[in-house]
Amino acid sequence: MIDTHELFHLLHQRVRFVTKEFNQQLSAHGLYHSQWAIMYCLERFGPMTQTAIWKYLNVEAPTITRTITRMEKNDWVIRRQGGDKRERVVELTEKAKKKYEQVNQAVYQYEQETISRLTREEVDQFYSILQKLGPEGGEG
Amino acid sequence: MIDTHELFHLLHQRVRFVTKEFNQQLSAHGLYHSQWAIMYCLERFGPMTQTAIWKYLNVEAPTITRTITRMEKNDWVIRRQGGDKRERVVELTEKAKKKYEQVNQAVYQYEQETISRLTREEVDQFYSILQKLGPEGGEG
DNA sequence: TACAATTATTTACCTGGGTAAATAAAAAAA
DNA sequence: TTTTTTTATTTACCCAGGTAAATAATTGTA
For the whole model, what pTM was predicted? Predict the structure, then answer.
């Protein structure tokens, strides 16, 4: 029987470790993992309002405001006004579109490498377990 | 075959979710999860130098300096000088010792509840998978 | 239409992770 | 012994998560 303290401690530790490595990989491209998550999202779904972004990424609105502001400063995204004047629609810049594939490759490679210590079955188990940890208990 | 982007995205999301809930539970006691981690550590091992703490928790030294400073302000720990004048030995205050069991109960209950959606087998798998994600690949 | 409620975003302020560089004390070496 | 190197901690400054409250625009309603 595993001590739950140990389990949660290990969970936090490993996530910090992975995030740190992830950021190190991305630093070569001038990005951080949260910025990449937004880039990935915009490439996948096209221009989005900030609300759509934070709802998708499951973070709070102020977090996105801040990160998008930084990304805009570094010429990764631009914001234009939506049909609704409250909305700000975010889209990738030409620079971001141009560099996307290269960064994607680096990320993909890092992820594969990290996962390489797991069997295919363990990867499936991992995904399934993580889903069950969520608010919807894995049915959503 | 699972998309690794999805997997890592899910990992981050779930950890944020769990951390948030954890903090909410602890807020009733005036603590945050990182502070609890330190309290747990000190209760388990007794007074420790800051270096011993950050090495055990696997974070960087400045992180511990900051959190310990906050905990000292809130009367959870005190720092005294070690035999080596560079060292600062941290120990729990009377308040912390008095409240420890109560907080521990709350934490334990939350952790059990969170894990309750997993089978015993899945908990074991989860632990084992997390170990393999680390720098030592699970052998350490 | 005028007023109230909702929605999108922002601001201010917390915690907590990181790195780089500065101190101060101890240990090692010349 | 004096000097150099290492070690423990701190400071300054990032990024990223959170909450509470403020704005501004849109919807809903009396």
Answer: 0.93
